[in-house]
Amino acid sequence: MTDQTNDSLARLLDANAAVLSLSITEEQRPGVLSYLALAESMHRSLLEIALSPADESALVFVPQPPENAHG
Amino acid sequence: MAEPRDSGLMFPSATAIAAAVHAGDQSPSEAIERSLARIAATDAAIHAFTDLLAERARRRAHALAQLPLEALARLPLAGVPFAVKNLFDIAGLPTRAGSRIELDRAPAIQDALLVRRLEAAGAVLVGALNMDEYAYGFTTENSHVGPTRNPHDPTRIAGGSSGGSGAAVAAGQVPLALGSDTNGSIRVPASLCGVLGLRPTFGRLPRTGTYPFVASLDVLGPLARSSLDLKLAYHAMLGSDAADPASLIAPAAPAQHEPGSGSLKGLRIAVLEGYFHDHAGDQAREAVAPVARALGATDHVTLAGADAARAAAFLITNAEGGALHLDDLRARADDFDPLIRDRMLAGALLPAAWVDRARRVRQRFAREVAALFQRFDVLLAAAGPGPATEIGAATMTINGRSVLTRPNTGLLTQPISCVGLPVCTVPVWSSRSDYRLPVGVQLITAPWREDLALQVAAALEQSGVVHAPVAAL
Predict the structure, then answer these.
(1) Which of B242, B348, B407 sits opposite A22 (nearest CB)?
(2) pLDDT tens digits, residue range B40-52?
(3) Nearest CB to B350; choose among A34, A39, A67
(4) What total of structural domains would you count in chain B?
(5) Could you give the dihedral angle defined by the CA atoms of residues B177, B164, B5 and B259, in that order, rounded to the nearest 10 degrees?
(6) What is the ipTM of this complex?
(7) Nearest CA to CA, how far is B128 from chain A (Å)?
(8) Which residues of B are marked as active site?
(9) A51–B357: do the CB atoms touch at under 8 Å?
(10) Contact status of A67 with chain B (Cβ, < 8 Å)
(11) Chain B contacts of A35, Cβ < 8 Å?
């Protein structure tokens, strides 16, 4: 983990928390940053997997018939 | 050999209880009172239960006792006591999901669908079981209500997140419990508590009426002390439900490998090496060996991309979990269990592109695994790096390396659930005197082939390699 990555993650935390109206307290901040660093390392490992546009995500939307309506 | 033994008379299986009720040798009320007495005698030591439903169970057992024997004979689980992880809805109770926050919500209006299905088959719900908060953990060291303790060594964890489910079965409190498995939460407690657990294919059993963790990964399933009990419960719960779209992908009728056929002849079984060997400690590696020998499995194969699948599962879990709880993270973050709060907060902040890439890697890996199942029917791997660690242990040692306990306990289960595969986890006890506790082995099959996993588990029980004794408490 480089200083540059640490700085980037700290800026990511501040920017995304502000956009999400999520308060990160000083007590929470070190723990949150350590988990962001772990997630970043996981993401970095996935960059080694070559993907093509044909590699779709596993998300499949399921249309709902009238009988499944809420209420 | 350190494991305790029981005759099966003191702690009958679900199958034996139902058979005794069918024969008129035991009333459902007797079976329930026996379970309630065992809970009363042992739960202070292990703390598996968060909610006991004694009066509800007695009423239900009494109603069953009024039925004629012919009617009871049509109920495959007649009089069988069971309990569920406290993320299953139970009418009249708030669905805790291991949290303090959910206790402020309204009580559930009706039972979860799988609870209703088990009770329709004659089983009797006796209570709800401890878990990691929102299922985000592998240790059931719940900060709100305290840890569940391993019945075979109460100084150690029961595993998680369905730790109460594993402990209740291992303690002989109930012969059957339900749990959920997102990254290993049925397989890890089954492994550490020395019981069997069935993690069905993603989509096989509907999750209607349960508190979600990661909707794109979550499955529900049973834990028990025999493969026959798992099978009995599993069959009683089958069938899709429109309220859970994931369950609509399941084939209408599951493939069946009837137990009468018995033989494993023709089954192609291989041991997973590479990632699954490298991240397993000595005892875990040694647990796989007798299973492979008993099954005549001599092939060893590498599942390329397992480490990437684990990373993908981590990111998907972190992001979906954080997003699901965003409102409460904004309003009352400090009401979360300190063991998961900062992880949840981080998950809510992840860039969408990271998560989308993880989902694409997941799909890619699923196709690579599918290719392996063209060559093999069953794959074997340890269910965790080693046996149960001490409660509160921040680190553990795997092959001489000290690693964090909580993030690494699911190392060997996460790549498998990442692609939704069914697994029956079976406990293996070592004959070595320094290995006092069991380690589980995963019997992994292609999607929708739970029948094969159960069949192999039954063969291992018959061979004597696998057994699940009740703990001496």
Answers:
(1) B348
(2) 999 999 999 999 9
(3) A39
(4) 1
(5) 30
(6) 0.92
(7) 28
(8) 85, 161, 185
(9) yes
(10) yes
(11) 318, 342-343, 345-347
**pTM (2 decimals)?**
0.96
Residue B322 lies in a domain: yes
| Burial category of B23 from C-beta neighbours within 10 Å (exposed 0-12, middle 13-18, buried 19 and up) | exposed
**B389, B156 Cβ separation under 8 angstroms:** yes
Instruction: For chain B, state the CA radius of gyration.
Output: 20
Q: The domain containing residue B53 runs over which residues?
A: 14-463
pLDDT per position as a tens digit, B142-165: 999 999 999 999 999 999 999 999
Tokens of residue B461, six digits: 């029980």
Residue B8 lies in a domain: no
Task: Assign residue B253 the CATH number of its domain.
Answer: 3.90.1300.10
Nearest to A58 among B307, B354, B359 (CB): B359
Rounded to the nearest 10 degrees, what angle do helices B306-324 and B352-372 cross at?
140
Inter-chain CB pairs, A–B, below 8 Å: 112
> Could you tell me the sign of the dihedral formed by the alpha carbons of B123, B125, B131, B133, in that order?
positive
d(CA B230, CA B70): 24
For residue B389, is it within any domain? yes
